[in-house]
Specification:
mainly alpha; elongated
Length: 110
Amino acid sequence: IRALCTGELQYADVVPTMRFEAGIGLLVSGCIVLFLIPYFTFTAVAMRVGITVSLAVVITGTMASIFSAMLPFAVTRLRGDPTLVVAPFMTTFIDTVGIVVYLTLARAIC
């Protein structure tokens, strides 16, 4: 958001920013899954549940990174103030998407 306001980022930087944020999202969510693997291994959690949760974390984390990078561009393009809109919208949006992703994967895997 700061980079958009100061002019360091332009609308032409949307795709490179999304690629960068997608990579960061995959890296962070992959690290979280690495910490979850021992938990799923040493508890009585079924393998399918562990796979479902791990996939949901990776997908949701990556989507959160991508959408949180895209939303300030979209709000700025609509002549809105991204500092007022992004945080409340992203929290609600990603929580909802996370639940939908998890339940969809649970239905497909389990």
